[in-house]
Amino acid sequence: MAEVRDMLEALRSAPVMVATTTREPQPEVQVGEPDAVTERVESQPRQPRPARRRVALLLAGGLVILAGGVLAGQLTPDRKDATDAAPQPPTTSSMPSSNSAVSATPLISATPSGTVPPTASRPPTVHPPPNGGPSALSAVITEYYALMPGNLAEGCNRLTPRYQRNPAGGRGGYQAFWDRIRGVHTSGVTPVAANVVEATVEYNFKNGKLVRERHRYVLVDDGGRRKIDQSTVLSSQTFDHVNAG
After folding, report:
1. Region labeled Disordered — which residues (predicted)?
2. Which domain holds residue 200?
3. Is residue 220 part of a domain?
């Protein structure tokens, strides 16, 4: 674009070159009066040929037209770009009414997503332990000693086979121990854990001696019946010459 403008400026400022022809002076011939006419004719400059001047004008006009077309082509995209680049006026939108805003708001469920609302459930059924609860544990001990020393056979059945062997000492050892006892009394029978009971046992020996011991018993279920499987002496006191009563 700059080159076209420079070329147009050069064409406008350059002088028009006119071709002139000069002729060498001829020797004057003295022929009287006609010489004056000849001198006046030669003193006037010769006019350029019209054909060459017409060609030069046509070329200059063509260059001007060509430059104008190029300039117009360059200016047209600029105008289009300027039109496209012009910011569009912002479109005004009406503010939503309170009714539409309320209707567009999603309803919030009272129940969180992905959770199941709790349903009323029945209280769990409490199944009593086999052969009763804590009172049944205490009854195993009190009933066992209630049989002693008169019903050794039934008392032995309240013991597991392991307990019958040790510490009872088998049928013979069991019989020998209870043959020395005049009577037995229990107190403070207390369940302390599942299948564990503590009790105070007083043995009245036939020789008048009294032994008071605190025992801990471990009970097990044997064929649907609780039996004594282990016993531990927690404390022991011996009193001599106690009157039988």
Report:
1. 16-50, 77-134
2. 134-239
3. yes
